[in-house]
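Memo to structure team: turn this sequence into structure tokens by end of day. - J.P.
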Amino acid sequence: MQTAEEACAQLEDELLFCEDCRLYFRDSCPQHGAPTFILDTPVPENVPSRALLSLPEGLVVKERSQGGFGVWGTIPIIPRGCFFGPYEGEILVDRSECTVYSWAIRDNGSYFYIDASDDSKSSWMRYVACASTEEEHNLTVFQYRGKIYYRACQPIPSGTELLVWIGEEYARTLGLKLGEHFKYEFGEKELLMKLFQDLHLKTLDSLPNHITTRSQYVCNDMVTPLIQSHKQSYPINNVGHSSSGFQLLEGTQNLVSLGRAQSRYWTFFGFQGDAYGRIIDKTKIICKLCGVRLSYSGNTTNLRQHLIYKHRREYNELVGTQGAVVEPQKNIESVSPRELPSRAVVTPTVGRTTKAVADFIVRDLMPIEIIEGEGFVQMLSILDPNYKLPAASFLAHTILKEMHIQAKLKVMELVKHLQECSVSLDLWKHSGSLSYLTLTIHYVTEAFESKNTVLSSRVVSEDLSEESLKLVLQDVADEWGIRENTFYAVGLSSPSVKIAASKVGWKSLPCVGQVLKNCIEAILQHHTIQTTLDRFRRLIATIFSSAAQNEELTTHGPVLKVHLKMFLRDGTKWYSIYTLLQSIVDHSKFFKGLIETLNEDGISLQPEDWSILQDVVDILKPLSIATSTFTKDQFAGLSLVKPVITSLLYKHLAPNESDSEFSKNIKKAIHEELTFKYSDSEVNQVLNLACALDPRFRGLDFLSQPDRVETLHLLKLEASSLAKIQTVEPICVTPEPQNSRPPSKKAKQDTGIEFLLGDLCNVRNASASTVNQQAEQEISSFQTSEASSLCQDPLQWWKMHHTQYPLLARAARKLLAIPATSVPTNWLFTDAGLAVYRKRSALTAEHVDMLVFLNGNRLFI
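Reply from structure team:
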């Protein structure tokens, strides 16, 4: 039979504590928002020194003066309320195996231990020392969802050691007796180990008969229904309402009521008493229905409010107004959305859970209909038996629609104030004959931070006709008001896309990811290469079919074996084929030995096959490095394109005397493809301008002298033009009353020397220089200054130096905002893109625009 303490212990395992408002919460604090978890640095298991490698940024492990190691903060301050964890290690069930690196975890009344003795299986938290006194601690240990975490209970300045202390929460986890005068003076971890020795003796029956907390509520609003599911009916003999018939928690018969209490609300509340029935603490009162501890100040306001919001049914029965209140479990679809704001039919629990379901749909880009699936319904019924899951149609047309509207308003407000931006055009296949075009805007903020925001997804004709694309672009541009402040569109380099973009007033730029993809796929589709890869595929299949050869492959190269399995399963993926072929060439001797051992017809590889593989690897290497160069950021900047393409054309893929005939032909084909894609003179001008504003490439050394001169001239015109636009922009100023203006002063009379020499000797000052002259001066200074490191972020450089070049800084915000690719680079160069498009294609057509928008703009939700 479960007691109030047992129920609350289970529920407390699901709650977090806010150090600021001193309240427990689930998922998000009502006052201070979502909690901050400081994540460990990801490190695989069983890696030597894994604990040290998992240390988050901003922390350092050092030797303590007392001996051993400790953890210190290196950032200016670790805010109060941050969470660290979970504590990692090995699971122990034998208390004799526990060490000073062990913590006990309670699970349904019994205990097991998590031990971090092995630094290859644990995390950095093993190095956090226990405080010697309560005054010096800055971390509190607690159990959350069956795992151990540390919480910063006060701000931790830089250079301060992190010291953990066992507080009231973990004391309850250990089943220690609680009380106002109880002190948790455990000190060093060795003393706490003595308490662990007794945990096997503790059962649920031996736990204390009450639960205390430092906050107004022990149990969060969201978990009240779970507590109610564990209620039992017992007679209450000493409370004064023995015939009430309400289901009260076991043990609450020992609570003491006020002798003078007359309010009916006292039916459900009482104080903790001692053995003689005397009230121990009159500032805290306990609910007999759920065990929650409330603050008591002499009136019943808190009591009444708690009953109304947490125990509506019991409250209605108590005051005799049950028929006047709508049950929370009523089908929410029967209530008009317009009535929702004025009718209290949805409890806070239902609202939070429904919002969590909506967030799940948005974050994971799931079909809305998934919530009606049998497995999803069963999972929620287990997590919260009292929750009524809304229909998919209600979720789509109310909750998600409202999220969509609110997020769009925020994005529209943002877009309205953008001076310049660019767009990327993501053309993708949905299902059947449906194709979509998703537009994303890209811009650089005044703080020189690169941002991107998804706008809309529209259906386009299957043949991607120029007219269909033009109508979509015009529709989206007019809807969001971006036609005038958008200059460039990055996407497919097809003629229809170029013409459609130009009719909207945008210059179309090719996606470098698509260009590189076409080059690599052209190599792989070459007949000679296809034949060689087919032979090797047969060889690999034969190796895997032989137990002895398979075992030898596992012993020789487990990573190679993984690559070969992927090759058999997925074929030749353009973005990963280089890694596979390089691995094959590196293990050529091993494969040649296997071929001799097998001695089967049809699976042998000739010397010319190995020669072809080597040539392909040599050609693919610079292309592979080029793709990886663009994956540093979510959207790489356009300024990278020209230097990378130029290095491929004239250095890494240039013909060489030692090249085989096959290699020469492949390089020639790639050279022609890259040259064709970037043959447009206007495209090259934009690429050159972006490079001229990138501090890494400001010297433009990869351009010919005529192109360099032309680029600097265009840059001067661009910077001057933007400066003039900014100058004539209207400034909203409240007009002053005419009579408020001061009387105009008389014109200043010339002095004698000004009268005589004023026409001959004009005074020159900075204000006399034109915008063009200023732009020219800035360009000259920028060009002759020292180039930045190739690894430096150009926007970070501009963030520090924009005041030195105010005109160029404006141009940099415009041109460095242009992305090099039409989609995030990891979508192009990894399997991530396949996963995203697979999810998109599973969405119902009517929900595509809404869900793709919300998924791409989660910061605005």
